[in-house]
Amino acid sequence: MSSNSWWRRAAGQSFNPGGAAAAAAAAAREPRLALPHLAAPDIGWVDWAALRRLGFRGVVFDKDNTLTAPYAPALWPPLVPALRRCRDAFPPGALAVFSNSIGLRQFDPDGSEANLLEEAIGGIHVIRHETKKPAGTAAEIEKYFGCSASHLVMVGDRHFTDILYGNRNGFLTILTEPLCPSEDPFIVKMVRRLEGYLVSHWYKKGLKPIKHPLLTETKNLVKDPSL
């Protein structure tokens, strides 16, 4: 990606009026929508086989700071074994990427960058879509998987995009820590600080994530992979 493309994409992602409106509405009316069902340092801590046994049929990943460094074209190397374990737990084709950068027609109109990422991450499908998270429906994702979003897992590193979008549309949501927060654009860093402040405040008030019908247990779904 050229430096001009990087800055255009970074600026475009930072300016997300639909996302800002959705986040403001959630904060005012239902802040629990920004709280994940599960949280983990990274995808390597998630017991994917256990989630499959609970009835989940697929996993949807954010890209930047969840699977890759921001705007990078390849998987973050330490996550290679973790992604392999996830693929082994689910049927072929049951993993996908849903990103506010690659695959979004605003920044990738012909899908060429999505094609490159699919090759780089072993054929995992990048869903092409029109609307930035957290706005929009799960229609494109449900069409790809052939099932309701309530049978899918949404994984990402942002409360006000990935988690809010996932909860609004019925996914099980998993928050991971950003892989390379130092490489975020300045505005994203500021928004992360705001997210952290608000989420901490909501947890201190006793708020809990919204319930998910398939999440009958949480024990041992997130665990240290070294143990």
UniProtKB/TrEMBL annotation:
Native source species: Ananas comosus var. bracteatus (red pineapple)
Pfam families: PGP_phosphatase
Range of residues in the leader sequence: none
Coiled coil regions in record: none
Name this protein carries in UniProt: Phosphatidylglycerophosphatase GEP4, mitochondrial
Molecular function terms from GO: phosphatidylglycerophosphatase activity
SUPFAM superfamilies registered for this protein in UniProt: HAD-like
Cellular component GO terms held in the UniProt record: cytoplasm
InterPro entries: HAD-like_sf, HAD-SF_hydro_IIIA, HAD_sf, PGP_Pase, PGPP1/Gep4
